[in-house]
């Protein structure tokens, strides 16, 4: 089925510990993301890149935190763009580090509430990103978007007010393999659905994903997919500053995308943490572009033959 799609560049890099994610949206364009989706029959508009307003004048007692005012400004801008774009189309957010999800989750949760539908999130990532401003030790705010979006304490007065918190019971995290003690405790308390890489090794990715999608379908929900490059094994996706060995394989990732397409449930998508400065001749950008195409209808039998 042809869809209306809006590509929205989010060149934020201040949430990560390394520079380079700012170039992510350009890399997706160079990799032919729009052309790949048009070839599948979709109506695709590239809306260009967002730019944040002035930094919010905020400071936090945690001295480790970096670029708080900037990320707060980005969050406000992204949330507004997500809410607006999702009124008539499926937005795809081209990151940019994963701090962008503070805005996409906020904006899309508000859209689901306006549509009178429950909101669900599939979080594909090596990390849970559920830190708060108090618990983060690195100070890199790409580690807090899930904490913020699910209404964890401590963000009031620093991040934009959250119109509609995301229900942790509606969040499924797959691919986790780098979670620190503070995050483990938060995950345990909040009631997220977790399928770490051991669980995927034991049961495969298909069965748990189908179970989650069945829950979304039964509830009539809107589904946001947040895909971080480091969900993938660094052997196939080196262009990310947070590599963790043992990630999803090429086929596991494509199977997940194909199941998502078959479900017809996905209403928005993040492509996060691509750092072209760390990539190998566009290898990761091309793979992420191919995964987005799979989510939107490209089949396994349609893979081109390429030289690597």
How would you summarize what this structure contains?
The chain has 308 residues and is an alpha/beta fold.
Name its key features.
Arginase, Chain A, 8 strands, alpha/beta, globular, eight-stranded parallel β-sheet, 308 residues
> Which descriptor suits the 3D outline?
globular
Low-confidence stretches: none
Radius of gyration: 18 Å
Mean pLDDT: 96
Largest sheet: 8 strands, parallel
Strand-and-helix sequence, N→C? EHHEHEHEHEHEHHEHEH
Termini Cα gap: 32 Å
- Total helical segments: 10
Question: In CATH terms, what is the architecture?
Answer: 3-Layer(aba) Sandwich
Helix/strand/pairing category: alpha/beta
Strand order of the biggest β-sheet = 2-1-3-8-7-4-5-6
What's the CATH class, please?
Answer: Alpha Beta
Count structural domains: 1
Classify the fold: give the CATH topology: Arginase, Chain A
Count every beta strand, where a strand is a DSSP E run of 2 or more residues.
Answer: 8
Question: What share of residues is helical?
Answer: 25-40%
Beta percentage is: 15-25%
Considering the protein shown, what is the CATH homologous superfamily? Answer: Ureohydrolase domain
Q: What report would you give on this structure?
A:
It is a single chain. The protein has 308 residues and is α/β, with parallel strands linked by helices. The chain has a single domain, classed as 3-Layer(aba) Sandwich (Arginase, Chain A). Helix content is 36%, strand content 15%. It has an 8-stranded parallel β-sheet, sandwiched between helices. Helix 8 runs parallel beside helix 9 (250-263) and helix 9 (250-263) packs parallel to helix 10. The longest helix has 18 residues, at 68-85. It is globular, with a radius of gyration of 18 Å. The model has no long low-confidence stretch (mean pLDDT 96).
């Amino acid at each position: 089925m042809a869809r209306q799609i809006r590509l929205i560049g989010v060149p934020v890099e201040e949430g990560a510990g390394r520079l380079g994610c700012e170039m992510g949206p350009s890399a997706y364009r160079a990799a032919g993301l729009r052309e790949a989706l048009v070839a599948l029959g979709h109506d695709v508009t590239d809306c260009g890149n967002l730019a944040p307003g002035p930094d919010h004048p905020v400071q936090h007692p945690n001295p480790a935190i970096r670029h708080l005012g900037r990320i707060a400004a980005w969050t406000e801008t992204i949330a507004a763009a997500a809410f607006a774009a999702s009124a008539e189309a499926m937005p795809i957010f081209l990151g940019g580090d994963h701090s962008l999800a503070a805005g996409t989750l906020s904006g899309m949760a508000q859209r689901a509430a306006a549509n009178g539908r429950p909101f669900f999130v599939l979080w594909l990532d090596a990390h849970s990103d559920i830190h708060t401003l108090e618990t983060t030790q690195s100070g890199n705010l790409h580690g807090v978007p899930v904490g913020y979006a699910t209404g964890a304490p401590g963000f009031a007065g620093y991040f934009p007010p959250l119109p509609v918190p995301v229900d942790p019971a509606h969040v499924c995290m797959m691919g986790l393999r780098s979670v620190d003690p503070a995050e483990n405790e938060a995950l345990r308390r909040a009631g997220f659905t977790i399928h770490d890489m051991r669980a995927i090794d034991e049961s495969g990715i298909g069965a748990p994903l189908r179970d989650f999608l069945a829950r979304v379908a039964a509830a009539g929900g809107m589904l946001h997919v947040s895909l971080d490059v480091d969900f993938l094994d660094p052997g196939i996706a080196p262009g990310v500053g947070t590599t963790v060995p043992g990630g999803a394989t090429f086929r596991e990732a494509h199977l997940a995308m194909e199941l998502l397409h078959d479900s017809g449930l996905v209403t928005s998508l993040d492509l996060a943490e691509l750092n072209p400065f760390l990539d190998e001749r566009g290898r990761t950008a091309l793979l992420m572009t191919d995964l987005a195409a799979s989510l939107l209808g490209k089949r396994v039998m349609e893979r081109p033959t390429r030289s690597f």
